[in-house]
């Protein structure tokens, strides 16, 4: 269990002189004074075990959290069997490499609805996630799997769906992407975000509030929901940070803004003064 909120960039910081992940983490910790980083496996899991071991070795005596974002290609409602099997493999590989890196949490986008009903997709997602988790448990890979709240209404991942998966499967908790929630429910009021935290607490108790995996950025209200820099968006990020403080949330906030580390530093500085 973690004792506070950590802050980090999604992937190697843009300002890092060296672009490999090991040096990106070192730079994040030593130069930016951030205390977390999300491994971006979004376009594939290509990390070698040796690279993962080096990360684990580097962070072992530091107050630093590693998470990952699994590939965007995962779709547990894939209509083709090979795509479904590949989806399970990608989630498994993401979890394994993150665990070998000393990481604790894996965020992923569970599925598209396609022509299926949300109930059908829920069952399929649950079955596949269970299968992956059982394999991880068999191999003593102890890590939290996090279906993420999704922006588009044709993607599986509303707040209830990710909460229900957490209730149904051990080792599953939601990844809360505040920008996606703002987009999906078309609401950026502080009352809305308060209701989200209250809903998490009433369904999942302190377990979720003590173990948050949060994505934060602004978001464009176009058909794609492109991420934006916080200060150029309508995200009430300061209010959200105040809410997280009020609810005594612990865990990690990953900046997914286009300026990546800059917003992570901005949020950390603001939060520490609250
Ligand atoms: Zn995501």
Explain how this protein is built.
The protein is α/β, with parallel strands linked by helices. The protein has one domain: Divalent-metal-dependent TIM barrel enzymes (TIM Barrel). Helix content is 44%, strand content 14%. It is built from 10 helices and 10 strands. The strands form 3 sheets. A 4-stranded parallel beta sheet has the order 1-10-7-6. Helix 4 (118-138) links the parallel strand 4 and strand 5 (144-147). The longest helix has 21 residues, at 118-138. The two termini are 22 Å apart. The mean pLDDT is 97. Bound molecules: zinc ion. Zinc ion (ZN) is lined by residues 69, 107, 109, 148, 177, 215. One of its GO terms (biological process) is base-excision repair. Residues 31-263 form the Xylose isomerase-like TIM barrel domain. This is Endonuclease IV. GO terms for molecular function: DNA binding; DNA-(apurinic or apyrimidinic site) endonuclease activity; phosphoric diester hydrolase activity; zinc ion binding. Pfam families: AP_endonuc_2.
Low-confidence stretches: none
The helix/strand class is alpha/beta
**CATH structural architecture:** Alpha-Beta Barrel
Biggest sheet strand line-up: 1-10-7-6
Tally of DSSP helical segments:
10
What is the rounded distance between the termini? Answer: 22 Å
Q: Strand count, sense and closure of the main sheet?
A: 4 strands, parallel
Chain-averaged pLDDT: 97
Radius of gyration: 17 Å
Helix content: 40-55%
Portion of residues in beta strands equals: 5-15%
């Amino acid at each position: 269990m973690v004792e506070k909120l950590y802050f980090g960039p999604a992937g190697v910081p843009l300002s890092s002189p060296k672009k490999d992940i090991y040096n990106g983490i070192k730079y994040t910790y030593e130069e930016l004074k951030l205390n977390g980083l999300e491994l971006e496996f979004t376009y594939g899991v290509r990390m070698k075990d040796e690279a993962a071991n080096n990360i684990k070795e580097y962070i072992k005596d530091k107050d630093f959290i590693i998470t990952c974002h699994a590939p965007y290609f995962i779709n547990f409602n894939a209509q083709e069997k090979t795509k479904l099997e590949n989806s399970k493999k990608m989630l498994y590989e993401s979890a394994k490499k993150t665990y070998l890196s000393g990481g604790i949490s894996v965020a992923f986008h569970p599925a598209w609805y396609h022509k299926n009903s949300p109930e059908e997709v829920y069952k399929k997602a649950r079955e596949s996630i269970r299968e992956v988790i059982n394999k991880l448990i068999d191999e003593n890979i102890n890590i939290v799997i996090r279906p993420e709240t999704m922006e588009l209404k044709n993607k599986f991942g509303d707040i209830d769906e990710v909460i229900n998966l957490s209730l149904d499967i051990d080792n599953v908790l939601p990844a809360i992407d505040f920008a996606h929630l703002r987009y999906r429910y078309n609401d950026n009021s502080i009352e809305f975000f308060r209701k989200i935290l209250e809903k998490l607490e009433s369904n999942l108790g302190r377990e979720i509030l003590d173990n948050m995996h949060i994505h934060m950025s602004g978001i464009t209200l176009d058909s794609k929901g492109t991420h934006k820099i916080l200060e150029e968006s309508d995200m009430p990020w300061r209010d959200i940070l105040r809410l997280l403080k009020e609810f005594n949330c612990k865990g990690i906030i990953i900046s997914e803004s286009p300026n990546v580390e800059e917003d992570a530093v901005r949020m950390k500085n603001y939060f520490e003064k609250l």
